[in-house]
Structures are given as structure tokens and as C-alpha cells.
Amino acid sequence: MPEFMDVHRNMAGITKEDLQAAHDADLAIQGEEKVDFKSAWADPDAGVVYCLSEAPSADAVRRIHERTGHPADEVHPLPIRV
Fold first, then answer.
1. β-pairing, 36-43 with 3-8?
2. 82 in a structural domain
3. 27-81 pLDDT, tens per residue?
């Protein structure tokens, strides 16, 4: 399954608890789009959040994030991994 890294901007001040809640919301419905969210990282000072997932498409990732109230600003395919 293809991997994707998505980016959320304008998240300044996000806490670990906020990040966990957003990730849990994604996990709760990810199966409906056959997405598997692996991890999420945040830089509260820069206001940026990153999420790693496996999904059938970038659109599937976008749809899950939109439905859980935190749409991604960017979704990037990760075709090469070492």
C-alpha cells in the first residue's frame, strides 16, 4: 500500500493531548477509507503537524482528515524509503 506524509499548518500551540485527540479521531474512522495512520508529529512553535499513513490514495487521506475536522494543507506520496 502506498505511504503518504501529510502536513497541517496553522496549528501553533498544539499540545501533545491535542495531537493525540486528533490522531485518535482519525484512527476511529480510518478503516472506512482503507487508511492506516501510523504516526503523527507536531511542532507547536512552528504550528506544523505531520502525519504518516498508508492509504490507497492521497484523496483517501484528505477525506479522513476533513471528516475529523483537521483538513491537511498538503499530502505527499512517499514512493522511496530506506
1. unpaired
2. no
3. 999 999 999 999 999 999 999 999 999 999 999 999 999 999 999 999 999 999 8
Q: What is the CATH number of the domain that holds 46?
A: 3.30.70.3090
Q: Are 64 and 30 contacting, i.e. CB atoms less than 8 angstroms apart?
A: yes
Contacts of 24 (CB under 8 A, 6+ apart): none
Domain that holds residue 45: 3-77
Residues whose CB falls within 8 Å of the CB of residue 39, separated by 6 or more in sequence, listed in order: 51, 52
76: helix, strand or coil: strand
Grid cell 507547536 — which residue?
Answer: 44
Tell me the three cell numbers of residue 52. 504518516
In a domain, residue 15? The reply is: yes
Answer whether residue 38 is part of any domain.
Answer: yes
Please name the amino acid found at residue 77: P
